[in-house]
Amino acid sequence: MKSAARVAVLYSVIAMVWILSSDTLFGVLGLTAPLYQSLKGFGFVLVTALALFSGLAVRERRLHLAQAERTEAMVSLSARERELGQSAARLQALIDSAPIAIVGVDQNGTVDTWNPEAERLFGWVAQEVVGAFNPLVPVDQREEFAQMYASLHSGRVVHPERTKRLRKDGAKIEVLFTTAAFRSPEGQFEGGVALYVDISSQLEAERELEEHHSRLEELVEERTDELHLANERLERATQIKSEFLANMSHELRTPLNSIIGFSGALLQGLGGPLAKEQEKQLTMVYRAGKHLLELINDILDLSKIEAGKLDVVPVTFDLCEMVQTAVESFRIAADEKGIKLDATIGAESMSVYTDRTKLNQILLNIVGNAVNFTDAGVVHVFAEIDGPAVCIDVSDSGVGIGREDQPQIFDQFIQANRTADERLKGTGLGLAISRRLARMLGGDILVRSEVGVGSLFSICILAAYKEGVRVSGHSVAKRLSGGYIRRERENKRAKEAD
């Protein structure tokens, strides 16, 4: 209708213009009347046809462009619809395959989303709940649920929290859930979504773990009581043992001192001259008595240490004098064996504050062992103040101690199997007592040894004794990291090569 009106208007305008201007135009061209009349009609038709053609051509062009734009818009709309369809399909697949229950409701609280995990967890299939009010909320929690749902309108997000929800069979299950609101682009509330995770198994495991912990605590308490009782019994038994050993040792020392004294007097000829065999037998009695007395004294010392009856009595004295005296006390024994026995002291005078008697007992024991277990070579004593500690290293080129025996040599009545020589037998208590005494003085004794090369015993105690303070383990251990054993091994190889 609009196209017909446009054509009529166009035609009227062209006719009016032609009528008003054709006479003037032909007059200017000088045309005669008969020819003028013929051309006037023909010209009118020609002009009208050209004008109509031009108008229709323009109109057709516009229609073509509009159709192309419409086609392009339809193609774009179709592609967008496909993308939206694919996105909706992916979203639905994600919801359906999610390992958690997803429940969506509209603005009225009616369920519109119910995924397969929700079906498994709560028992209702989607057809039973979609379009109905949410059936999960127990009666005693509906007011709380209504408040929570109302809060979604204000944009509040319910962060994960524990609650209970109903199953189709009427049972209540523990779940962890969170909710959020759906809103339109304009911000209008359109519904919400809730995510549910079944934590029943987790809570059951937690309860079992708590029960296990409670039972474990009871067992620990029972075992602790048993251990306390056993420790008390053990302490009592140790005390009884120590008292028995102490009493027996005292009882034995009296006749032993008599035996040693009388045999010594006879050997000195106080009872008259002795035959050679008599002197030999009396010498054996004297040595056996001295050895037994040494064993008894060691047992007494060990008993006192274990019973806690051995006190530390610190005094100030010169360590250099003690070391020199200890070395000289073994000079004759070393010379008889052809051993070079010497000492190196880090200063002319070293004042220490500790229990002199106990340190001297340790030093005599270690140096005596070094001389006893060395057949040839060198026994060297080195003493110095090292920070807060006083350290005495006793090295020898003796038979050495096997690696497997070294952890045991400080145990009671244990001797390393260095050699089968009967001369090397002892009580097996010296090193055990020495280590306990060193630890009483705030230090320790460590050993480094190699069979056939020699041994290095390092004694480190506090230079200024203070109860409850100890020399660090590193300070003692670093003494053994020196090259003495390596140097002795190289020296022995050089001698063998010569």
Give the secondary structure arrangement, pairings included.
Elements: H1 2-29, H2 33-97, E1 101-106, E2 111-114, H3 116-122, H4 126-129, H5 142-152, E3 158-166, E4 172-183, E5 189-198, H6 200-267, H7 276-307, E6 315-318, H8 319-329, H9 331-337, E7 339-345, E8 351-354, H10 356-372, E9 377-386, E10 389-396, H11 430-440, E11 444-450, E12 454-462, H12 473-477, H13 484-497
Can you walk me through this structure?
This protein is an alpha+beta fold and 498 residues long. It folds into 4 domains: 2-92; 98-198, Beta-Lactamase, CATH 3.30.450.20; 207-290; 311-497, Histidine kinase-like ATPase, C-terminal domain (Heat Shock Protein 90, 2-Layer Sandwich). It has helices at 2-29, 33-97, 116-122, 126-129, 142-152, 200-267, 276-307, 319-329, 331-337, 356-372, 430-440, 473-477, 484-497, and strands at 101-106, 111-114, 158-166, 172-183, 189-198, 315-318, 339-345, 351-354, 377-386, 389-396, 444-450, 454-462. Helix 7 (276-307) packs parallel to helix 11 (430-440). The longest helix is centred in the middle third of the chain and has 68 residues, at 200-267.
